[in-house]
Amino acid sequence: MKKVAVIGGGIIGMYVALKLKEKDLDVFLYDKKTEEEIGFKPCSTLVSERIREFIDLKEESIENIIDICKINFPRKIIELHFNPKHLVLNRNEIIKEQLELLKQKGVNIILGKNIESIPNDFDYIIGCDGPNSVIRKKLKLKDPEMKIGMQVFVKQKDDSNYTDVFPIKSGFIWKIPRGEEIEYGILTKSNQAKQLLFDFLDKNKIKEKQFIVAPVPSGFVFSKEKKIALCGDSMGLTKPWSGGGLIWSLYAARLLVESFPDFKKYERKTKHFFRFKIIKGSLANKLVNFIGFNFPFLIPRKINYDNDFPNFFKSIIDLIIKR
Predict the structure, then answer these.
(1) Alpha helices, DSSP H only, in the chain?
(2) Max alpha carbon distance in the chain (Å)?
(3) What is the spatial distance between Cα 230 and Cα 127, in angstroms, rounded to a whole number?
(4) ∠ Cα 107 40 69 (to 5°)
(5) Model pTM?
(6) For 250, what's the count of Cα atoms within 13 Å in the CB-facing half-sphere?
(7) 8 A C-beta contact, residue 255 and residue 266
(8) What is the pLDDT along the chain (323 residues), one digit of tens a residue?
C-alpha cells in the first residue's frame, strides 16, 4: 500500500487526506498544532453554499447566512445579491467534525509535530501547510505575492443578512455579521494596514482594537517534483477580488485527488480551470473599482452575483435587458 503524507491539518488538508484514504492509500495527516489548537486560523470563513459539495456541514457550524454584499463606494452603494448564498462558518466546529471523521476512516493523524523538512519515508507528499508553507520553501519555489489580512471581533449581536465592503485605494475593509459578534477586517497590499483599519474603526466609534493578522497569498505555485504536490494557500490559490480561497482550494483539491498520483496532470487541469478566471477576475476588479470611484452612475444599484465564478459584466447586461 502506498504511503502518503499530507502536511497541514486545515480544511483543505483534511479534505485531501479523506479523499486519498478512500482510494485505499495509507494516509498520514501532519499538523504542528495540537488537537486543542488545530481549528484556529485567521480566516473569516465566509463561503458560498458550494462548500456543501465537499463537506457535510452540521447546522451548529453555521453562524449566519449572507444574501447580499453591499459595496460602499463614496457616492453610491452597490448591492451584490449572492447566488449561491454565503455562509458564515465556525471554522473550529468544522475542523473538529472533520477530525473525528478522519479518525473513523482510519487516517493516521499526527498532531503537535512541527515539520521542518520534507519527509523522506513516504511515496507521495501533499503540502497543504498554508501561506508560509514549509514544503514550498524546502522545494525552493518562489513565494506567491502576499497581501496583509487583519481581523477585529466586536462582541455585538448581529444576524443581518448582508455584509459590507468599503473599497480603499490598496484593497478593502469589510464588516461581517457573525450572529453573536461582528467581524471587521482589512485586505491590502499596503504596509499601513493596521493604521487604515484603526482609522476606520475610530471613524465608526468602535473601541475594540484586539486584532489578528495573517498573510494572504495571491499567485500560482506548483511543485516540479513528481512525488510532491501543493494545494490550497500553499500554492497561493485565492480569488484576486476578495482574497477568499476556500472554495477555489476545494476545487483544486478535487482535481488533485482525481489526478493522483499524476501531479503533472493535476497542474495542467488546475491551470486550465483557474488561469483565465484569475486574469479575468483581476482585471474586472480593477475596472469596477475605477468605475465605482469615478463614474458610479454607470453601475446598477443591484446586481445578481456569483462570488466564486463571477461574470460581472454579463450580470449587468442581463439586468439591463430585463429592464
Answers:
(1) 11-21, 91-105, 134-138, 193-203, 246-259, 263-294, 312-322
(2) 63
(3) 5
(4) 110
(5) 0.94
(6) 18
(7) yes
(8) 899 999 999 999 999 999 999 999 999 999 998 877 776 777 889 999 999 999 999 999 999 999 999 999 999 999 999 999 999 999 999 999 999 999 999 999 999 988 888 988 999 999 999 999 999 999 999 999 999 999 999 999 999 999 999 999 889 999 999 999 999 999 999 889 999 999 999 999 999 889 999 999 988 899 999 999 999 999 999 999 999 999 999 999 999 999 999 999 999 999 999 999 999 888 888 888 999 999 999 889 999 999 999 875 555 555 444 54
Of the candidates 311, 114, 141, the residue with the CA atom closest to the CA atom of residue 229: 141
The DSSP secondary-structure symbol of 244 reads: -
Phi first, then psi: give them for residue 244, nearest 5 degrees. -70, 145
SS3 assignment, position 12: helix
Cell reading at 93: 466546529
> How does DSSP classify residue 123?
S
Nearest in space to 129 (alpha carbons), one of 44, 212, 239, 249:
249
Residue 125, SS3? Answer: strand
Q: Are 294 and 278 within 8 A, CB to CB?
A: no
* Distance between CA atoms of residues 188 and 171, nearest Å: 4
**Helix, strand counts (H, E) of the chain:** 7, 14
Cell numbers at 158, concatenated: 448581529
